[in-house]
Amino acid sequence: MSEHIVSVKIYLTIFLALLAGTALTVWAGLRDFPGPLNVVIAMTIAVIKATLVVLYFMHVRYSSRLIWVVFTSALFWLGILFALTFSDYWTRGWLPIS
Amino acid sequence: MAESLAVEHEITHPALQHHFENMEQQREAGTLGMWVFLVTEIMFFGGMFLAYTLYRSKFPAAFASASNHLSLKLGAINTAALIFSSFTMALAVYSAQVGKRRNQVICLVLTILLGLTFLGIKAIEYHDKYVDHLIPGRLIPRRPFDASGVHLLPGAARQNVEMFYWIYFAMTGMHAVHMVIGVGLLSVILYFAARGRYGPEYHNPVEISGLYWHFVDIIWIFLFPLLYLLGRHLEHGG
Questions:
Q1: Residue A97, domain member (yes or no)
Q2: Is residue A32 part of a domain?
Q3: Is the confidence metric ipTM above 0.90 for this complex?
Q4: What local confidence, expressed as pLDDT, does residue A93 receive?
Q5: pLDDT of residue B124
Q6: Which of B50, B84, B168, B188 sits in a 20 to 30 Å window from A96, CA-based?
């Protein structure tokens, strides 16, 4: 598999999308959305921006399966870190201590 | 097979290490190695993001109050500077791939300058925190942490404001250390790029330094909304 060269046009598009995402996240951060929606919007924008960087700037979209596996393994372990910790903290006090 | 390999080695690029069969394999191996390192970095920062999430969910009002004291303007400018530097970094890799040495050097210089801009603004922010007595604990002699200058939202306790600043300095501090390392890394790459070491056949050092640089950018993409924007909406709504 030979190396894929991403065009300048794609880099420029991603760059502008990232700047737009930053403007959007500031705009959304200054408005009061109901309930936990503020943090949900902020994190959705951040995840989209990070995905664009990973796929295009870091070339993962054009990389081998092996790179995909290594990258997803990081997300998987991060998931374990958060899930196991919060399964403890969020469930404290659910059962009375006898 | 052995003979054909030997012949191949003679005609291939001088940068090819003897333990790789060809440039393609060498490039793939280098990229994979960098990604494995980045996985450990994701876990390293992951621990701090976990601490942040945990304490923010425990003390939401104090975290919002402390966050509102940060400069949104400086944080946003820094975000734009880092995104711009990631763009120039990507263009530096591109220039190496298509063999434009001059553009490659220009892009690397721009990336380093934007990285230094980020660090400079970060230093201004840290100095503001020092002036406002917001360096947590007693790290600074005769200047212990004092949150009396922070406007507290209802339900916020002073000691939990300090908790936010511990996490703020730990996360942005580690991020800044990564930026300093990145600038050092790119300076070395710039030196070799200026001497014409990287071209269409061999540019893996540029590529994997770029991976590191983009990774540091991604960390900031998450840090910016989490640290600077978490309580702004409460300021106006009351």
A1: no
A2: yes
A3: yes
A4: 81
A5: 97
A6: B50
Question: How far apart are the C-alpha atoms of B200 and A5, rounded to whole Å?
Answer: 10
Measured on CA atoms in the order B52, A39, A49, B27, is the torsion positive or negative? positive
Kindly state the tokens that stand for A32: 């009061």
Boundaries of domain holding A69: 64-92
Q: Which stretches of chain A are assigned E, i.e. beta strand?
A: none
Substitution target in B78, B111, B206, B229 with the highest count of A β-carbons within 10 Å is B229
- Do A70 and A30 belong to one domain? no
Instruction: Evaluate whether residue B99 is within a structural domain.
Output: yes
In degrees and rounded to multiples of 5, residue B171 shows phi and psi of -75, -50
- Below-50 pLDDT ranges, chain B: 1, 237-238
A20 contact B CB<8A: no
Residues A44 and A80 in one domain: no
For residue B99, give the CATH number of its domain.
Answer: 1.20.120.80
Q: At what angle do helices B158-194 and B101-131 cross, to 10 degrees?
A: 160
- Return d(Cα A89, Cα B12) in angstroms, integer: 58
Which helix (H) or strand (E) element contains residue B167? helix B158-194
Which pLDDT tens digit goes with each residue over A5-16?
999 999 999 999
Cβ atoms of B115 and B209 closer than 8 Å: no
Q: Angle at the Cα of B69 (from A23 to B71), degrees rounded to 5? A: 40
pTM for this model (two decimals): 0.92
Picking from B46, B47, B83, the nearest residue to A22 by CB comes out as: B83
The residue among B229, B136, B159 whose CA lies nearest residue A31 is B229
For the record, the structure tokens of A19 come out as: 């700047």
Domain count, chain A: 2
